[in-house]
Amino acid sequence: MKITAYLSALAAALLLPAAALAQEKATLAIMSIKPTPSLAASITAPDKKLEMGRIIESLNDQLIDRVNATRKFQIVSRSDLDQVVKEQDLGASGNVDPATAAKIGKLTGASKILTATVDDYQDYIERATFEGTGRTATKRVFRFSIIAKIYDSTTGKLFESANIQTGNDEFKQIQMERNYSVKDGELSDEMMVAVSRTMAEKIAVHVADVVFPAKVIAKRDTQVTINRGEGSGVAIGDVFNVFALGDEMIDPDTKESLGREEVKVGKVKITEVDPKFSKADIVEDTGITTGALLRHSLPSSNGQ
Known about the structure:
By secondary structure, the chain is of the alpha+beta class. The protein has helices at about 1-25, 35-40, 45-70, 80-90, 100-110, 170-180, 190-210, and strands at about 25-30, 35, 75, 110-130, 135-150, 155-165, 215-220, 225, 240-250, 255-275, 280-285, 295. Strands 1, 2, 3, 4, 5 and 6 form a 6-stranded mixed sheet that branches. The chain has a 6-stranded antiparallel sheet with strand order 7-8-11-10-9-12, with no helix packed on it. Helix 3 packs across helix 7.
């Protein structure tokens, strides 16, 4: 009996770290994406209304897949969430206020609520005629913009808000890379999926970075390992600034916590991306340690 009890206790102890890690995942409820009422009313052409609807439909599924790929969240089942929203008449228009977010969190067990509304959609051909020659030129105009909001359901407060866009440059890149055909001012089915995937990736990476910033989990000689892998917006060649966390900062007027001070202590460049983590070479080091935060380094104006 003593041996059996000992083995049971040992097994439970060995399983504890894995269980503890699993419990640290935030439970995220992802609301269905909808256009703002004014945008929906402004698009009257049947083909454009259908096109936007198909992009949003694809984006709803792509977003769940991309958020899941970050490996940072336990996602509330969309069918369960939709049923709760329907029964409680919550967020029917795609707009969620703090009180609604708190109620959704209580009903679903989600600690964070992600809402996304499409606030801009344009896809048309612009034509110009040159005086004197009679020659014409055409330009494709494409814009797709989403307002993504993250609510903390325990407090009902807005945790983060961001405007995420894609436009002509990315549209052309997708078209060239994948060799997708486009009609005059109309997206093919393949392009709709590609645009949806691009936006879903941006939203998922932003959510993961806000709730769980990338961190150094190991350092050896001139290399670090970070807790970002495939599907989390990290690619070979990416450069990150590294920050050590300082003291908590308090707004003297509102007494609200503004987070902790971040002090730059180095820079790293991604050299390897694995399913669950990535490795990077240290480019600069003035105090990089395990637990340091990483932020994408934006290129300077001279391209360096």
